[in-house]
Amino acid sequence: MFGLGALLLSVMMGGISYFTTRHFLVTERESASLRQAYVNASLIRSSLHSGNTKVDQLLASLDSGSGSSSVLDVGGTAFASPLAATRELPKLLRGTVSSGTPATQTFVVGGRPLIVVGVPIPSVHAVYFEVFDVDDLDHTLRVLALALMAAGVITTVLGFAVGESASARSLRPLTGVSRAAVAIAAGRLDTRLPSAAGDPDLAGLTNSFNRMVDQLQERIEREARFTSDVSHELRSPLTTLAASLDVLEAHADELSGRAQRALVLLGADLRRFQRMVGDLLEISRSDTGSADVSLEEVEAGELVRQAVTVSWRTLPAQIAPPEVTVDPAVTGIWLSIDKRRFERVMTNLLENAALYGGGATSVRASVGPDRPDGRHTVRIGVEDRGPGLEPTERGRVFERFYRGHVAGRRGAGTGSGLGLALVAEHVRLNGGSVWAEEADGGGARFMVELPVDDVLELR
Question: What is the pTM of this model?
C-alpha cells in the first residue's frame, strides 16, 4: 500500500508538474514568437511604404533571432530568407493569412517541431510568415519528462522500502504471536511470548496471551493427570473382577444355562472394559511424555506379515484373515521400529475394519515417496469392504472417543473410540504418519507411512 500510494502520488505530481511547466513554456514561446513576428511585419510594412524594393536585403536585415526564418509574399511573389522553405508552410495557414486573418500554427517537418506565425500586410498587398524552430523547447520537455519519470520510479521504490520497513516493524509483534500460536498448536505448550514492557499496547496482548497459554497448559495437564489417576484406580478393582470371573468361568458347568449366558456377557464386557482402561493408560503416558519406545531392527516385509498374523488371532473366529501383499521392492528394506507398538497398530486397524467395515480385505506393503528431507518411506495400507468414510470424517476418526455416525452406519459400533487414536499415537512415536482415504473398489483404506533409516535401508 505504501508503494502503490507513492506510485499514485508520483504520477499525479509528475503529471501536474509536467503539464503545468509545458503549458507555461509553450505559451511563453508562442507569445515571444508573436511579438517578434509582429515587430518584423511592422518593419517590412514601413520599408515597403518608403519605396524600398530590395526585399531580399530587407528580410536579411530583420531581427529574426536564433532558429527562425522569414517568408514574404508580395503581390504573389514569394521571397524567403536563406533558411526558410516556402513549400513547407501549411496550405491551410497560407490560405487563412492570405484572406486577411493573422494565424499561428505548430507543425513538424523532418522530425523537428516548428511554430509559424502569419501576419497579413494589406496596405502593401503582402503576407509575412515567420517560422520558429522550437526543437530546444521540445528537448527541454523531454528531459523534464524523463526526470519526472525517474523521480517517480525512485519515489515508488522508496515507498515500497518504507512500507516494507514500517509494516515489518509494526507487524513484528504479531509475527511473534503467530509463531507462538503455531508452536502451541503443535503441542509445545511451554512456548511463551517475551515481555513487552516498553510497549504498553503490546504488553497487554503479551500478558493476556501468556496467561491464556498458562491456563491451557494447566487444564491439559490436569485432564491428563485425571485420566491417568482414574485409569490406575480402575485397574485394582478390574483385577479383582477379572480374578473372580476366572473362578466363575472355571465352574461354568455348575451354573444354569441362563447364568452361563450372563457369565459370557459379563466376561465380554469386562474384557472390553480392561481393554479400554489399558488404552486410557497408554494415552495418558503419551500425554505426560512418559511413553517408552523400544526400537528394534526388523525387515519390513516380515514385520508386516508377523504383525498381521498376531493381530488376526485376537479377532473373532468368524472374521476371515486378510490377504497380505508385500511388494518386491519392500523386500530387503529394514526398519528401526517398536515392534510392540506396530503390532498394536495392526491389531487396532484390523479390529476397526472388523467392527465397522465388515472385516479387512487386504493388507499391502509398498515403497512410498521420499520425504522432503530425502528419507525413503514404506507404506502399509489396510482396506476393508465397508461403505467407506466421508471426506469430513477421514481426519476426525483419529480423534479420541470420536465415533460420529460411522458406528451406526458401518457396523455394530461396539468400539470405544480410542483404537484409531492409539494408532495415530503409536505411529507418531515411531516417526511415521497415518491417514484414511477411499479404497479403489470402495470401502475405507487406512495408510501407515514409516520412515526408512538410511543406514538400515538395505542389508
Answer: 0.53
Q: What is the pLDDT of residue 317?
A: 65
The alpha helices in 337-439, defined as continuous H runs, are: 339-356, 406-410, 419-429
Task: Scan for cell 523386500, then name that residue.
Answer: 331
Contact 427, 433 (CB under 8 A): yes
- Report the CATH architecture of 296-451: 2-Layer Sandwich (3.30)
CA distances from 458 to 299, 327, 365, 367, 452 (A): 9, 15, 16, 13, 10
Q: Can you read off the three cell numbers belonging to residue 420? A: 484409531
CATH class of 202-287: mainly alpha
Cell output for 286: 503419551
The SS3 call for residue 377 is strand
Other beta carbons within 10 angstroms of residue 163's beta carbon come to 16
Domain ranges of the chain: 2-142, 202-287, 296-451
Report the relative pairing of strands 68-74 and 77-80 from DSSP bridges. Answer: antiparallel
Work out whether strand 323-326 and strand 360-368 pair parallel, antiparallel, or are unpaired: parallel
Cβ-based neighbour number of residue 148 at 10 Å: 19
Q: Are 33 and 132 in contact (CB under 8 A)?
A: yes
Residues in the chain: 459
Residue type (1 letter), 349: L
- Helices 257-287 + 419-429 axis angle, to 10: 40
Q: Which residues are registered as beta bridge partners of 70?
A: 130
DSSP-assigned letter for residue 254: G
Tell me the CATH architecture of domain 2-142. 2-Layer Sandwich (3.30)
* Average pLDDT along the chain, 459 residues, taken 10 residues at a time: 88 92 89 87 84 73 70 79 63 86 85 86 86 86 92 90 82 77 80 74 79 85 73 77 85 85 85 78 71 85 91 75 90 89 91 84 91 87 87 84 57 65 90 90 89 62
